[in-house]
């Protein structure tokens, strides 16, 4: 999860987030090179009065400064489009979960099971156990198996919400009357935190999302216990 004075992204917990981090580094390096080159040109123009009359009207230079930016844009656009299509790929999900946004909590329904569903509320500050995070902990976590394709169907019951977990590279709007879907694969066990990323009202910042990735055997035990309690 994020920590104070952090400059970069959270550590990737899914293959998709790893791709997004690689693309970020790729684009940042291109921007850094362009900025350095422009700064160099500005310094040279300010610090010298030398002029080359052949540069004042040069078709070759005009062609270069037209074609080169187009090539740079292509080098950025192609990886971006690849990731964009990867984010929409949902092939043979092992588990489907429906997330419904309410004012101001989330409801989860495991649609592959008959009666497995629960509401997820933020734990108030006075009820937090030692080691738990303020404004991020929920009384019921969304438990998923590790290294399994998970499809999440996202909607809202009242106003616009947004289901977002940065470490998994997932962010999808929850719109009343509309069913959006996204997918992710957790590459390692852990607990990953997110929040509603849409300004949905007074308690907008009190809708934490907690995804707990566990081995498949532990997930089956958890689902059995939840069905027995239901």
Automatic annotation (TrEMBL):
GO MF entries? copper ion binding; cytochrome-c oxidase activity; oxidoreductase activity
Give me the segments passing through the membrane: 27-51, 63-85
Domain Cytochrome oxidase subunit II transmembrane region profile, first and last residues per copy? 1-91
Per its UniProt record, the required cofactor names are: Cu cation
Reaction catalysed?
4 Fe(II)-[cytochrome c] + O2 + 8 H(+)(in) = 4 Fe(III)-[cytochrome c] + 2 H2O + 4 H(+)(out)
One Pfam match? COX2
Q: How is the cofactor bound?
A: Binds a copper A center.
Q: Which UniProt keywords apply?
A: Copper, Electron transport, Magnesium, Membrane, Metal-binding, Mitochondrion, Mitochondrion inner membrane, Respiratory chain, Translocase, Transmembrane, Transmembrane helix, Transport
Major place of localization?
mitochondrion
Gene Ontology cellular-component annotations:
mitochondrial inner membrane
What GO terms describe the biological role, i.e. biological process, of this protein? Answer: ATP synthesis coupled electron transport
Q: Hey, what's the signal peptide range on this chain? A: none
Q: Which family does it belong to?
A: Belongs to the cytochrome c oxidase subunit 2 family.
Q: What does this protein do?
A: Component of the cytochrome c oxidase, the last enzyme in the mitochondrial electron transport chain which drives oxidative phosphorylation. The respiratory chain contains 3 multisubunit complexes succinate dehydrogenase (complex II, CII), ubiquinol-cytochrome c oxidoreductase (cytochrome b-c1 complex, complex III, CIII) and cytochrome c oxidase (complex IV, CIV), that cooperate to transfer electrons derived from NADH and succinate to molecular oxygen, creating an electrochemical gradient over the inner membrane that drives transmembrane transport and the ATP synthase.
Provide the protein name: Cytochrome c oxidase subunit 2
């Amino acid at each position: 999860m994020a920590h104070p004075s952090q400059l970069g992204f959270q550590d990737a917990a899914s293959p998709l987030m790893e791709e997004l981090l690689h693309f970020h580094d790729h684009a940042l390096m291109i921007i850094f090179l362009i900025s350095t080159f422009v700064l160099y040109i500005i310094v040279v123009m300010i610090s010298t009065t030398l002029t080359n009359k052949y540069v004042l009207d040069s078709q070759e230079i005009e062609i270069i400064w037209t074609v080169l930016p187009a090539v740079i844009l292509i080098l950025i656009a192609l990886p971006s489009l690849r990731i964009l299509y990867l984010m929409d790929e949902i092939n043979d999900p092992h588990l489907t979960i429906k997330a419904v946004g309410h004012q101001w909590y989330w409801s989860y329904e495991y649609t592959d099971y008959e009666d497995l569903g629960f509401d997820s509320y933020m734990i108030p500050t006075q009820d937090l156990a030692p080691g738990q995070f303020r404004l991020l902990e929920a009384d019921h976590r969304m438990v998923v198996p590790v290294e399994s394709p998970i499809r999440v169907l996202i909607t809202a019951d009242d106003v616009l919400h947004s289901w977002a977990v940065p470490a998994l590279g997932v962010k999808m709007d929850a719109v009343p009357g509309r069913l959006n879907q996204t997918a992710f694969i957790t590459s390692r066990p852990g607990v990953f935190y997110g929040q509603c990323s849409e300004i949905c009202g007074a308690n907008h910042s009190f809708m934490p999302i907690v995804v707990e990735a566990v081995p498949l055997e532990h997930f089956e035990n958890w689902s059995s216990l939840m069905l027995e309690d239901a």
